Model the fold of this input.
Amino acid sequence: MSVPVIDLTANDARVVEQVGAACERIGFFTITNHDVPAEVIDGAWRAARAFFDRPEAEKMALALGDRVGLMANLPQYYPFQEEALAAGLGVKTPGDLKESIGFGPNDGGRPWPAQPAELRPAMERYFTAMLALGDRLRRVLLEALGRPGDMLDDLFPPNGGASYLRAINYPEQEDVLPLQMRAGAHTDYGCLTILRSQDSAGGLQVKDRDGQWIDLQGLDDSFVINIADAMSVWSNDRFVSTLHRVVTPPDALVAGSRRQSIAFFYNPAADALIEPIVAQGDQARYDRITYQELQDRKVQVTHRTM
Done:
């Protein structure tokens, strides 16, 4: 099984059909011709790389530590090995081999750093572009479920709600502990994830319905999209929130294996009620839950206290 590539300039009905089939079959697809300007993507990519190359003390100034004085839409830095994503599935592993910086309207952080000066404007432009793309894709998903595309508009506020933008750096790493990965196997929390990544040794893998791990190779000028937990609940499990991970490279390929990605987690408002959209004759498989409750269940077990 492979991850399909979908050209968004195709006929609207064809796009809906392809997206629906991908979400039912594997929960991942790659989009091309998405209309996000190259300068927005490249600007965020360069700014994130410049931040990760700053001295450790500067980055740690943005780590949460105590939560006094945190403000929405300001950045948070997550240090190397702070997160262990596999814990969200009850699997105990060493910390993941990555560091990251992110922000969102529903999350508090520290003031933007003075350097690199381009970080804030580049990341904010990227957030705005991803929010618009997420709105577009969410409406396609609903049409693929046979519902009006605007059905959930009231649950997705213009400021992004609980959406979150995160740039991630995976350094070269030689001393890897048993069960340790760049990102342990996990599913995402929200509606959908829009990922921009680079190919490297030690990359993204997706678990198909047969239990096999598939390498997902990035394409130039594309985004990888995956269904997340809230959307799976909304679809009453018709759309699958698929396990994925970022593996460590083999020893022979560690040199030159540094990897970067930017993930936009497209989510509803924190207080949005998530309940199944049930087809006629079917029964709901889930009780109502707010998005915040759904997210908190995982965050509490995947992050260690700094």
The helical segments are 12-25, 38-52, 56-60, 119-144, 229-234, 291-302.
